Every structure is written in C-alpha cells, then in structure tokens.
Amino acid sequence: MLIYGRNPVREAFRAGKTAEKIFFVKGERDARLSALFSEAKEKGVPVEYVERAVMDKLTGGGNHQGVAARVTDFSYSSLDDILSIAESRGEKLLVVLLDGITDPHNLGAIVRSAECFGAHGIVIPARRSVGVTDTVVKVSSGATEHMAIAKVTNLNDAIRELKERNVWVYACDFGGEAPKCADLKDDTALVVGSEGAGVHRLTRELCDGVITIPERGKINSLNASVAAGVVLYEAARQRA
C-alpha cells in the first residue's frame, strides 16, 4: 500500500506500520521532510530520491508534498499474545528475539525456521530493525501467516518481562556453551543478533546464558538466519 503526504507518512511511522521504502522528491528542502528522512534512516527503511514527475506518477497526481512511503498491512501481535499461544497449546514457551536484524531475507528465513520448529512467536524491536515487508513474507514461504510477530519499543524491556515470568533467556553469541549442552526444554527465549554487531553488550548481559554453535570451518560465523535455525532445531529435538 502506498501512502503519501507529510502527515500521513509521519502518522504511519508513529502507528508502528512497517515501511518497505520511502520516496522523496529530489531537491525538496523542508524541516518536516528532514525529520522523516532521519526517522526512516533510524528505522533502517530504504530511501529513494525520485524526480517530481516520477513522484506525481507514483501517487497518481495526488498532493504528495514531496514524500511517499510503501507500507505493509501486516498485523503485529503483542508479547502477551505469544505467551498465550504457548499456554493455549499446553506447551513450554519457545520465542525468538531478534536484536538488530535489518535484512528482510534473514527475517523471512528466521520466521520460516521458527514456524517449522514449533516456536510460538518472534519479537523484533520497533527501531533499527526490519519489519514484516513483502520480501519477508515471500522469503518465509507464507510462514508469516502462521507465526505471531511482536514489535516492541525496547527489546531489553521485553527480556526483563520474560525473565520475570520465569522464562530462561539465552543469547546466541560467541563464548558460550554448545546448544546440546543447554536445557532448552523449559520456557525459553533465544536472542539472535545481527551479523555485523551480534547481540548487543547490554542485551547479552541481561541474558541468563550464552549459546555458541561449534564450528570447524575457516569462516568465523554463520549467517544469522542459519544460526537461528540450528538452535531452534536443537530446541525442537530436546522437546521431542
């Protein structure tokens, strides 16, 4: 869905909608446009500058005020929703928290693995993280239709809430124990970081433990979505 105009785009951001791309007219200079640009960059939304004629065509001649955004209509869940799903199934919680995943292909692959291995939901931060875009839906092979995905203001606060509910939280990072050595049968949350930064220091410090996948190759780290799949498989194996 394409929306345009400064206020509609700004309100879409405030409402937590996921923007797949934001378009600006080349050469437009305005404080409100600058603010939208800054927010888009902070959220990791791709930005494209186009000629005014292109924008006019894109918006069907509407009053775009120099900006338009393509947003998704995906309906996000809450953390409570995810907890309720596990409870309704009579299962121990298995949830994945994503710390700074900005590649929609990675998110889509993680959603697909999470659904395949019986996770009850995925939690993503509202800022500096990719949301559910058309690309995510496509890469997930439709798993987004069957997976609760919550968008939270602060990932660390979500971890604190889970710990208060007696959920064991593991960071998937370097310097920890092998997945098979961790007890993943009880209520468990897995924190997966970005490929560049990994799990942020403060986030890692909040976790109860660290899981590290043993590797023998010359490349020192797995793709984030592959790492998530490996640990999710181990959780499913232990629970089986």
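Second entry:
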Amino acid sequence: MVGSWEPVQPDPNRFYDGGTATEPPDPGHQPRIVLERLEHGDTERFRMDRRIAYRDREYGELLVPSDLATFVTDLTSVPTLFTWLVPKTGRHLPATLVHDGLVHPHGPPTYISSDGHDLDRVEADRVLRAAMRDVGVGPVRGWLIWSAVTLGTIWSGDARWSRALHLRYLLTMIATLATVVVLGVIATLDLFDVVDWLPWMGDRAWWVELAGGLAGAIVIPLVLGLAWGRFAIAGAIAGIALAVLLHATVLLAAITALCQASEWLARRRPYGALVGLAVVLAACVVLTVLLVVT
C-alpha cells in the first residue's frame, strides 16, 4: 500500500552534488544548493545553479532538475498559513527540491532516472518520503509533508490514471475533508451547548465533551481514510491533522486576512490607515479603562 514505512535507517550520504549541464555528478561531495532568486510578483521563486543527486533504494540515481535552465522552484511548496508547522526551508529542503524536480505536468512522464526508470507523480511522492527520512526529518513532520503532497497529487491527478480513477480519488478527498470540517464546526457548537448532535460528546461536563471531541477528531478521519484506497494512510493523516488543527487554522487565517487587509490599506490609503489605527487604539484605551474601573 502507498504510505508504508520502510524499516531502514536514515542515510544522508545518499544525497550528493549532482553537477551541472557540463559537470558530472560527484558522489564524494555533499550536495551544493545554490539558488538564484527570481522576481515573480509577491511569490518567491528560485532557480537552481547546480543539480542535486539522490540515490534512491528502488530507482537508483536521481538527478534533479533535468533542465537547470527552465526549472523554477518555490522551495518547499507549503501555503504561508502553515509555514509555522512546515517552514519553507530547513532539514527537509534537499528532499523537497528533489521532489520538485521529479514532479512533472500532465502528460507522459518527463523524468527518467539514470538507471532508466521513469517516475510518475505517486512514485515521486514515495521518493520524497524516503528522502526526508534520509536527511533526518522526524517521522511526524515527514508523514505530514508526505500527506500534504499526496493531496496535491490527488488534486492534480497522475498521468497514468484514467479520468474515472482520478475523479474517484478527487471526490473521495473532497468529501472526506468537507465532512471533517462540518463535524469540526458541529463539535465546537456542541462544546458550547449550542447544539447536542454528536453522540460522542452529548450533554456532559465540558471536559468530557472536549475529550470526546478530540477522540472523534481522531477516530472519524481514521474511518473515512479507508475510502481512499491506496492512499488510505494519507487520507487518515490529512483528516486527523485538519480536525485537530481546524480551530488554529481558522484563527491563523483570520489573523492573516487582517494583516493582509492592513497592508493593502497602508499601501493604497496611508492616511486612511492612520485614521483607522488611531480609532482602534482609542477604542482599546477606552475599553481597558472601563474594564478596570467597573
């Protein structure tokens, strides 16, 4: 099944310098990640000046990117909202750059390993998981990153899938995540006794309802993940992560939206931003004084 954990030890020496278009790979030299920052509006993009080589246990030597001149990466492809959990760079960077180099657009596979193996997107995701383990990424973060890129694979589809199979995976993913979000909202309302719809929470003491809600946030995604077939592990992990982090995600999304709105106002209407800031500060002062004296 896709997502099984191979019982092998980390091996950072599987990464080495991949050379350039004119220089061969050098297994005796550590990978040299040399990046050129490109301007793409508000989104950072980078071009690699040297390849990274990774010797996979199944596919042999992988040299990425296949074309240094055209390859562009955003490092670790994670939404800004979740960079507190998975930063753009760090110990996992060599592995995520290898994955970026292996993932290709729709159509026939465009990457072929040095040993002649062509890799589809699902296989590239498997390589990412193994590569993260080899550079010493912890198992919890490794599984979270792998599950996240698997969601991207299901969303984009794989060149070797039929349309019917892609639609099945896609609808299952959307239905699972939507169910988790809806149940998370209901659980929140149940905790504050607005409704009494979830039997694993019910009308009990608040700490019992909280424990029941947390248990449900784990058990329900585990059950729903079974419908994902070969991606069952990814479905369970993604569902549990969404359920557990739902409230933090909503709060962070609200704070992010507020910051972005403030930035937009400060750039487009600087005087309006100053007036708004003055009003907010005055309101905070008044509220603080009222709460202290009453």
